[in-house]
Design a protein that fits this description.
The chain is of the alpha+beta class. It is 21% helix and 41% strand. The strands form two sheets. Strands 3-4-5-6-2-7-10-9-8 form a nine-stranded antiparallel sheet, covered by helices on one side. The protein has a two-stranded antiparallel ribbon with strand order 1-11. A hairpin with a 4-residue loop joins strand 8 and strand 9. Helix 1 runs antiparallel to helix 2.
């Protein structure tokens, strides 16, 4: 059984899909998808993403910039967000995190709607990302008192340091998947807090086309289990007390 917290540190959870092209992307598709989701996501706005690619020719490698036009739908409270584009779907939820039992059905609804309208042929990539933010009132925090994953500073180095970032990649499911685990310093959001730590767990399909469309939600359930297990392995009971663990 996964541990439960009354005050979970999740600042944002996001599920991203990149698809194999099916039907040609038509500008009417965002309107069709919005029409099916507007009751839950009434607010909409266009989004532009800048993508960079590099191609080589006789003159050497040349960078190319492309503008990717997407549409974003929001729930009235602004906490739940859907972003769509050609062969692209993102569902995310900001703090307060409603729990996996509520977030997964949201993903299922928007995935089913996108799939119904666009008829993708398959999956190129799928990812599940949890960004946790832990804030402290103390100006100086000994990370080892709260975490089992943190940057190590040896005795031969100054023990006081400024902003930092560290990370590792962990393979899962016979190298089909990867979890990118990263910790970094951040600015606090809550008044009275002076120190904040981001613990970012990004689990994704590393083997392109490694699963089919019918298998995506079984994959997500496994991904979530691995993320939860890794998160719990990163923290100590001193943090669980701050999150107000439900016994």
């Amino acid at each position: 059984m996964a541990r439960k917290y009354k005050r979970p540190p999740v600042a944002e959870v996001a599920c991203e899909f990149r698809f194999e092209p099916g039907e040609p992307w038509d500008m009417i598709m965002p309107a069709l998808i919005y029409d099916k989701l507007r009751e839950e996501f009434p607010e909409r706005e266009p989004v532009k993403q800048i993508a960079t690619s590099v191609s080589g020719d006789e003159g050497g490698a040349q960078p190319h910039l492309a503008v990717m036009r997407r549409m974003r739908f929001k729930r009235e409270d602004g906490k739940a967000i859907v972003e769509i584009g050609a062969n692209y779907l993102l569902a995310s939820h900001l703090r307060p995190y409603p729990g996996w039992e509520k977030f997964l059905p949201l993903v299922e609804r928007v995935f089913s709607t996108y799939k119904e309208v666009t008829s993708p042929k398959g999956l190129r990539r799928v990812g599940l990302r949890y960004v946790n933010k832990v804030e402290f009132q103390e100006e100086r925090v000994k990370l080892e008192d709260y975490f089992d994953f943190y940057p190590f500073v040896g005795d031969g180095l100054p023990q006081d340091h400024g902003p930092f970032i560290c990370g590792i990649q962990i393979p899962f499911e016979d190298d089909r998947d990867i979890l990118r685990l990263q910790m970094e310093s951040a600015a606090p959001d809550q008044p009275g807090n002076v120190t904040a730590i981001l613990l970012d767990l990004d689990y994704f399909l590393a083997r392109a086309r490694g699963i089919g469309l019918p298998d995506v939600f079984e994959w997500l359930k496994k991904a979530h289990a691995h993320v939860v297990e890794t998160f719990e392995g990163c923290i100590k009971d001193s943090l669980r007390e701050r999150f107000d663990e439900v016994k």
